[in-house]
Specification:
heterodimer; A: mainly beta; 7-stranded mixed β-sheet; B: mainly beta
């Protein structure tokens, strides 16, 4: 099993360009998440999808859109990139939707720079 | 979700136990304590979680005080590969990552 995979690993954009970050998991998990991590900071939740067909906003959703394409795939789109969106983006998935057990499995991250 | 407080950094000698504290004085009765770690440039990795009782798995032990206002993650025999940022998260809903503790294991 590959676990959680993300593409691309690195990306440089110019201000105003758009792009989609791809995430896929092969663990048959119900829930998927997108986080961003700025230098020296913890992770902040952008959007999550508790199950196929549903998405909800996290702490910092502005400037992003998401699509839960199917149970395996959850994409994050930047419609008009801004320098403030320079960050490392992590995708994660988990089996359970509620406590008590909700271990999240993380992908390797996408390092995005917006000039 | 309750707020957590962790020391920003700690050192530990290789082979010794690493004890990482976390304060969560506003924790409510149904909130679990989770620990994750993040090795440089990688995605976070789940370590352990608990509600009231002490927990142990192949990676670590979690000691939660009786009043549940604080906890300690114990890595019994730290190795150089345990150098990472450790996050203590009190969760009733979504995972909220704070700044964590940067643990440096030294030879």
């Amino acid at each position: 099993n590959a676990g959680v995979t993300q593409t691309p690993k690195f990306q440089v954009l110019k201000t105003g360009q758009s792009m989609t970050l791809q995430c896929a998991q092969d663990m048959n998990h119900n829930s998927m998440y997108w986080y961003r991590q700025d230098p020296g900071m913890g992770l902040r939740l952008i959007y999550y999808s508790a199950s196929e067909g549903t998405t909800d906003k996290g702490e910092v959703p502005n400037g992003y859109n998401v699509s839960r394409l199917n149970k395996r795939e959850f994409s994050l789109r930047l419609e008009s990139a801004a320098p403030s969106q320079t960050s490392v983006y992590f995708c994660a998935s988990s089996e359970a939707r509620r406590e008590p057990y909700n271990e999240q499995f993380f992908g390797p991250g996408t390092r995005l720079t917006v000039l | 979700d309750a707020k957590t407080t962790q020391p920003p950094s700690m050192d530990c000698a290789e082979g010794r136990a690493a004890n990482l504290p976390c304060n969560h004085s506003t924790i409510s009765g149904n909130e679990y304590v989770y620990w994750y770690r993040q090795i440089h440039s990688q995605g976070p990795q789940y370590i352990i979680h608990g509600l009231k009782n002490n927990e142990t798995n192949e990676m670590a032990s979690l000691i939660i005080t009786e009043d549940r206002k604080s906890s300690t993650l114990i890595l019994p025999h730290a190795t150089l590969r345990d150098t990472a940022v450790y996050y203590c998260i009190v969760r009733g809903g979504k995972l909220i990552f704070g700044q964590g503790t940067e643990l440096s294991v030294k030879p």
